[in-house]
Amino acid sequence: MDLRRLALEIESISSRYAAKLGIERDDTWFLLKLQEEMGELTQAFLMRSGRARTKGHSAAELDTNFRAELADVLCHVVLMAHHHGVDLQTEIERKWLAWKH
Asked: What is the pTM of this model?
């Protein structure tokens, strides 16, 4: 997956969504939105792992929701990095992939 191209695609979708709803996406918004998504991921994890009530959802629905929340968190990390001019692909290569040998 090309993170640079993904960032541009996600940014396009997010900016259209924000414009439609009149949301100002400033530094604080990006951080708080990521925190919101982390909360939703936490809730999905707790429900899926039997540590919170399932609200009548099946195991398959809980799994689908968990997967979707993981995607939301990743996309908001990518959005925040893009907003701050951080090339995540370069940073991952520098910080993580340097250890692969």
From this structure: 0.94
Sequence-ordered list of residues with C-beta below 8 angstroms from that of 41, at least 6 positions apart, any chain: 66, 69, 70, 72, 73
| 66-75: pLDDT as tens digits | 999 999 999 9
All structural domains of the chain, each given as residue ranges with its CATH number in brackets, are 3-99 (1.10.287.1080)
Residue 89 near residue 3 (C-beta atoms within 8 A): yes
